[in-house]
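Protocol step 4 of 5: obtain the predicted structure for the target chain.
Materials: sequence only (see below). No template structures provided, no constraints applied. The aim of this step is simply to have a reference model before the mutagenesis design in step 5. Sequence pasted as it appears in the construct record:
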Amino acid sequence: MSDYGFSPDPKPEFPVAPPHEEAAERGERGARPDSPPARPAAASGAHHAHAHADDDELRDVDEVRAWILESIPSLTPIELPLPEAHACVMAGDVTAQMDMPPFSSSAMDGFAVRAVDVAEATQDSPIKLRIVGRAAAGHPAEGTVGMDESLRIATGAPVPAGSDCVIPVEMTYAEGEHVYIQRALPEGANVRPAGQDARGGEVLVPKGRKIGAAELGLLAASGRASVFVYPRPRVAVLSTGDELVEPGRPAPFGMIRDSNSFTLFGGLREAGAAPYLGGIVRDDPDALRESVLGLAIRSDVFVSSGGVSVGERDVVKKAFFRRGDVEFYKVAMQPGMPQGFGMIEGKPYFGLPGNPVSVFVSFEVFIRPALLKMMGRRDIFRPEVTAVLESDVSGPKQKTVFARVRVSRDQGRWHAASTGPGASNLLTTVTKANGLAIIPPGVETAEAGSEVRVMLFRALEDDA
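Step 4 output (structure tokens):
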């Protein structure tokens, strides 16, 4: 069952490399493998070639994603206080150090008694017991319970020795030093036994589990103040382009406001990463290189948008083509064809196209799974469903098309409705959607009424 309230359809698995052992030994966050992996084969099966700007080779989406995942190690686990560990992934099993709860306690306000003494109690013929003390929450009981005796007891208080059940106060009435029991209850009634929640040595939270609210509470109940987890990747986000201006500032004619940084910031936050907005970098390779290297000490991952396609202003290519191991290539997908990926200062670098929808789709397809792997997650892919298209969806036959759709359930079937034109600059079509319909290569038009895979990126109950 997924976070979206349904069981997703099976999806193909992509190879994922184990965390790099040497990186863990060095204690480095996000250290790169000793040697970069081979680039994926082209969709046409052509041999490897360096990705120069005029390289028209198109690469298969799944192969590129698998290559990226193989290239990225998980981050080295660190110990974090419980509040900071929320939503992180456990790096090892946590076991109970003792029985939980460590003592038997009362589930009700009432009287601790011996079940045998009240076995004949009825409303018409109550059993009279002597009150010999009190048991309050947070304190040891004031005495023990013998034959024909009882102790007043509060919810959560330790059950006194000698007693084996608790009679709720509403089934009794007291007169002076005696209580009258009006109903018989069996041994163990209203008693929470020691170890009922977990036994000492039992695994409370297993390795690989994302720490949610319940896990956080259980860890606290076990006495743990901190745990070893995979940390959140610190991600530096940059936008490139002379035409960009920050939101809130005047945008003269010909200028556009930077939306990509904020789309990425939101996606990173939702994925559990720790994003940092590095600002806008003008079309100057030296300026971009200085910005990235200046952020290296505070970042585990770099993401930039713009400057990776063919043109005179491809600032990212000019800045990093000969530094580190960054490759630039074309993916057989729409939107999001021009991409860049590699290592700078031993840390993953993602170079994305400049169009807003291309940025969103590229993040979902490539960056989000990679970040989840870095965080130790096992469920790194979005859930998918098979849905019936409500209208035709067309695109380049040689590419995988990711079409923005709104998925809904009707008469036992999933249906996918287009949220607008497929242009890669129309971000409103994403805000109206909750999924990406995946039209595979070889299909020029997926016709209305046909079934397609849909990758869901938003909970179905969210508003359009």
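Step 4 remarks: Residues 1-55 have pLDDT under 50 and may be disordered. The first strand starts at residue 58 and ends at 59.
Proceed to step 5.
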